[in-house]
Amino acid sequence: MTLPKTPSFRLDGKRALVAGASSGIGLACAAALAAAGAHVVVAARSADKLAGLVADLHAGGHSAEALAMDVSDVAATEAAVADHGPFDILVNSAGMARHAPALDTTEADFDAVSTLNIKGAYFLTRAVAKGLAAAGKPGTLINISSQMAHVGGIDRAVYSATKHAVEGFTKSMAIEWGPKQIRVNTICPTFILTPLTQATFDDPDRAEWIKEKIKLGRPGEVEDIMGAVVFLAADASALITGTALMVDGGWTAD
């Protein structure tokens, strides 16, 4: 009997674009893809932080380069992707939150969060898909969404709305581009310990709320996302598209 072989989790020969790579989840995703063998183009607004990341990746024996890019600038983003692509893999970790009670939401905050989290994510995903389609290549596109794309949360009406939108366009794009062998998925983390989330964990009421909701009894670490992103980027997930991979410690199991 010939036993089946596990599809590869390796990414050798693949080119990956990681947006929002200067810190937190995006940085961890870049490190994970590079360790799996991909050439990683790390993108963010902060050129200084990217330079340090690329130096660290090179020091680890990995292949990487930096690309200064503001995802909220659609025209510039499309031009940058066209100039540096096509990319076999996209990880979009660029995003923001301005948490406040719904009754206190300002129009400026609504517009800022929506512009980056929905509009920026939509057109970045489309730009990478355009390059793949023009080259006749398959690819895998991953948007870092959130558990809040599937539930509601205190002071998170705007953020939750934007992440629900990301889930919607991900499913529609997956349907459209499936015949081209371009897969589109999301990763939905719970609260991840990063410098940007530290203020939430420092609030005793919020920290208790998080503790009660996460069934595994701990918040997430960036390392919890790394295996998930390699899986969705690799041939090991070849039949997965239009779906959300929950990395939430059981939060949404209720």
Summary?
The protein has 254 residues and is an alpha/beta fold. The protein has 8 helices and 7 strands, in the order βαβαβαβαβαβαααβ.
Main sheet makeup: 7 strands, parallel
Structural class: alpha/beta
Instruction: Quickly count the domains.
Output: 1
Strand order of the largest sheet: 3-2-1-4-5-6-7
Strand content: 5-15%
Radius of gyration, in Å, reads 18 Å
Total strand count, please? 7
Determine the N-to-C terminus distance.
43 Å
Shape: globular
Average pLDDT across residues? 96
The helix content is 40-55%
Number of helices: 8
Show unreliable segments.
Answer: none
CATH topology: Rossmann fold
Quickly name the level 1 CATH class.
Answer: Alpha Beta
CATH H-tier superfamily: NAD(P)-binding Rossmann-like Domain
Instruction: Please name the CATH architecture.
Output: 3-Layer(aba) Sandwich
Compressed to H and E, one letter per element, the order equals EHEHEHEHEHEHHHE
